[in-house]
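hey so u asked for the seq, here:
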Amino acid sequence: MDPLTEKQIRGSFVNCTKGEASRLRLPLDFGDLPWEDLDFLGWVDPGAPLRAHLVRTGPDGVPVGITLRVPASNGVSALKSSICMICLTGHASSDVALLSAPLAGARGREGNTVGIYLCADLACSLYLRGKRRSKRATGAYVETLSLDERIGRALGNLDAFTAKVTGARVGA
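ran it, structure tokens below
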């Protein structure tokens, strides 16, 4: 991912007001992010731990940001393990969270949301590249897809979720 400026990030959000976007806090390590290892930028808001944010640069080069709600508890505590629906990394259930995103536009203002199970730290790109390891115990599967194929699959999954939030067709 190419580095983004604070202005680009704040201007990218499709499912919150401009005021909300101006008040969100960027990642604490924003100046030191490993942009070359990121397929999208994801972080839990350091000033509002029940808020998270994702920003992905689309095929047209325009960043699209989504604000998410983090549950007070991850909602999957009865499970021993779970999987991120973006990168398909298996985790202990405490390391996957069901995040919900208000829909863009009038539907979101009416309170409509869509949810997705994600790596609780939103570090999918780092898990894909082996730069961060899941705490999940033994029994992890080994994929035969190349790194580029896994990244493509993850971005496709993220694009499908983004389309649900924005109401756009996937690939449109």
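The chain has one domain: 6-166. The chain is about 25% helix and 20% strand.
lmk if thats what u needed
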